[in-house]
Amino acid sequence: MNSTSNADVRRVAVIGAGTIGASWAACFLARGLDVVVSDPAPGAADGVRRMIAEAWPALTALGTSPNADPTAWRFEADPAAAVAGVDFVQESTPERYDVKQKLLPLIDAVLSPDVVIASSSSGLLVSRLSEGCRFPERCIIGHPFNPPHLIPLVEVVGGTKASRAAIDRAMAFYRAAGKHPIEIRKEVPGHVSNRLQAALWREAIYLVQEGVASVADVDAAVSEGPGLRWALMGPHMTFHLGGGAGGMNHFLRHLLPAVESWWTDLGSPTMTDDLQRRLVEGVDEEADGQSIAELERWRDGLLEQIIVLRRNAAAKLEAARERERVEARLDETFPASDALSVTRELPEQDITPNPKAGE
């Protein structure tokens, strides 16, 4: 694959127009890109149109590109026709090997070799997804977090077949699209973020199974506690601060034994019909009559505010650091030979008077 500039990406194909694909389309439109959407489902185009309309106020509040246009997209049912002339492909079809392994070779066959095919797969292995492609080295995972038009994270996985150029191009593209891509260096089922989610949820379900706490209280134990910190920093940095002035080194030396004892006591639930029923009833009770759409609007509204707060805080920190860098460069360029002389109007005023003068 040739190493082409990310500035060459002007048109993106979104293959699969469900919740994830439609949200991706809104995200790309907000960055001023032309988008072609493809999905065989009846009414798919109408669903995309609704998603873009619903997402656009939040995208506008977060800041769109000057040339952003919510109407700069078209629908093409045939995926092979949809990818014609595009510079990047974001595939978001159902999470099944048989579906994706049939689709990817189809679009790979008609694309220029330097166009990246990124799958939104939340846990499949890209080295298997690219089987049958002419150019498997251009296929990568570009896994977003739902909803993609708001959540910055994108997990980029090259697996055993993707080229360094394809990975770099995908990372650059997602950064330009306002995302925070991370490179997963070794492909594993579920990538990184979903494995972390799965580990936490397994213990959350186990605690309900064992009668330790209700579904609502287990959720509150996260959302009203560590979840607030996790919106700002990950588990490693959280425990670095948990170590006090000594940081992670102190935490590992003094608190690790307690954590290790908890690890040995973690459980694995048995997902019986009864336990699944308790989970369903528990979240229904916790939702307190609110519909999925209402809960999504509440969640997304708060996510927007959190993202703005984080962005503003990061901008202030960077401005402060830049001032420090400028001051340091000035000190290097114009060193003061006499620290006192620059604080007085006349050099002689820097001379310390004889304390006995005038006696």
Automatic annotation (TrEMBL):
Residues 337-359 are annotated as: Disordered. Keywords: Oxidoreductase. InterPro entries: 3-OHacyl-CoA_DH_NAD-bd, 3HC_DH_C, 6-PGluconate_DH-like_C_sf, 6PGD_dom2, NAD(P)-bd_dom_sf. Signal peptide: none annotated. Pfam families: 3HCDH, 3HCDH_N. Residues 12-186 form the 3-hydroxyacyl-CoA dehydrogenase NAD binding domain. The keyword GTP-binding does not apply. Residues 190-251 form the 3-hydroxyacyl-CoA dehydrogenase C-terminal domain. It comes from the Bacteria. This is 3-hydroxyacyl-CoA dehydrogenase. It comes from Labrys monachus.
